[in-house]
Every structure is written in C-alpha cells, then in structure tokens.
Task: structure prediction
Amino acid sequence: MTAIVRALILLLLLAGGTAVRAQNLLTNGNFEAGLAGWSTWTAPPGFWDGTWIHSNDCDIWVPTQCPFGGAGMSHAQKKGSGAGNAHGGLFQTVAVTPGRVYQLRGAWSGGVTGNAGGNATWWEVVAYDGAVGAATIDAAPGPLDTLIARRDVSNLALNGVFQFQWEPFDGTFTATSSQATIALKTGSFFTFDAAGYHDDLVLEEVASSNIPVNSPWALVVLCLGLLATGAWMRRGPGTRRG
Result:
C-alpha cells in the first residue's frame, strides 16, 4: 500500500468524524448557577432613581413561557412597580484575542407598561472593548464597541403594554484588545413595571475561513487533491508530454 493511499484512508476516516465545537467563553451563560460569573450594575444616582431587581423569576412581566424552553432558569432584569426611572443589567468580562472575530448569540424577551407621556424603554446587548464597569456600560456604545442587538418602544399609552416573546439574537464583533465585556442592558423611564429576560448565551470565536481546517469538508477537499496528484503520478512516461 503506497503512502498516498494510506494517507487517503486516514483522511477519509477523519472526514467522517464530527468537527470540533468551539468553546463558550461565557461563564454560566444559561444562568443555571444563578449569577455566578456575572456582575450586576445600575446607572449612577440622579435621574435614574428607580430600583433595578435581579432574579430568575418571572413575577413582574410574564412571557408566554418562562423560563426559556420551559425548563431550567432564565435571568430577569426588572424594574419594580413605582420605580419611575431605572436602568441596569448584567455584565461579564472575558479574554479574547485582538483581531479575531467572535459571535454572541442567545435568547431574550421583555415587556413594559406605559405610565406618563414621553415614556421609553429599551433592551440592548453590547460587546464593549476591554474591561469596563457600570459608568461605561451606562453610556452609549463607543467607536470600538459593538451593539449586538436592540429592541425599543416609546410613547406607550397609560397602561398600554408592549412585549416581545422569546426570540433569538446574534451578532459578531472583532476584538481590538485582549478583553471584551458583554453587557445585558435594560432601561425604562416614565413607565410602570418593566422587565428583560435572557437565557442560553454563547460567545464563541468564529473561524477565519468558511471551511474550517478541522471540518470534514476541508478534509474531503484535501483528499480529492491527493487523489488527483496520485493519478497524475501513476501515468506512464509515454503519456506525459516532454
């Protein structure tokens, strides 16, 4: 058995396997361990004078199904009744490699009830460049930050309700430093109860090629190239043009 044939057999066996799955860089992305790995934040005192509550229950705004998928836990960020203005959420800082592309995906839902005129509520997921804290997260994303997902509503009528059921979100960003901070943000003013829910968050590095080098398709392509090379080498001298 020639070396080329042996190599072909080995590569074909590898091609029949399963591609290696990327690692989730987030700790406790499904919140099954409560808030382990996550930090809470609220906007500085002042205009944002309401209390923001962090829990895994659905007792303020109740989506059709809670938690996501009907099992396990989902994390709620919610503004209690009577808190006119509030802005808060969760964040987690992870190690990344500058120049690499990362994908963040998950599921979220939210809802709010209108109170006074001029009300507004928003839900955001942002990837901030570097290790940042509440003061930076409370501001709008900067030029090196990436808005992954956003929902918003404004000017709800008194007792008017806006809600969105569980839906997926995803987006990518390119790291520009050795750390990135993933922030889950919900803000609301001139409203009654409001809440945002998140679950099944995954942050993974994206392969630089559409066909990763460890994927079955890449191995198949390599096998075809070796087959063509072997066929050419087996041609007799009389068939070659000299």
